[in-house]
Amino acid sequence: LSGGQRQRVALARALAADRGVLVVHDPTTAVDAATEARIAAGIRRARTGRTTVLVTSSPALLAATDRVVLVDGGTITAEAPHEDLVRDHPVYRTAVLT
Question: Which of 3, 8, 35, 73 gets the highest tally of CB atoms within 10 A of its CB?
Fold first, then answer.
């Protein structure tokens, strides 16, 4: 399996387990943009009714969240929806959009 295929299999296993808490770390680093968009939509649907922690710098995945916690230098420096951070927080904007 390719790296992207392995990522999709691992994510499918995590989602199929149907646990109350889902923790996902960079599930789209080895996939193309179209696949990433489909994964983001799937995560958006799958997180309904469960706590989801998503560790990523992917704009597509961050946009699929209710809120983002920005950690800079080991310290939480901001917490808000993705759109608010893009608009109001230069460190976040630089980290995510460049």
Answer: 8
**CA neighbours within 13 Å on the CB side: how many for 36?**
16
State the span(s) of the chain assigned CATH 3.40.50.300.
Answer: 1-55
What six digits make up the tokens of 44?
A: 């958006």
Taking the C-alpha atoms of residue 94 and residue 52, their distance in angstroms, rounded to an integer, is: 25
Vertex 66, ends 15 and 92: CA angle to 5°?
Answer: 110
pLDDT by 10s per residue, the chain, length 98: 888 788 888 888 888 887 889 888 888 888 888 988 988 888 888 878 888 898 988 898 899 889 999 998 999 999 999 999 999 999 899 988 88
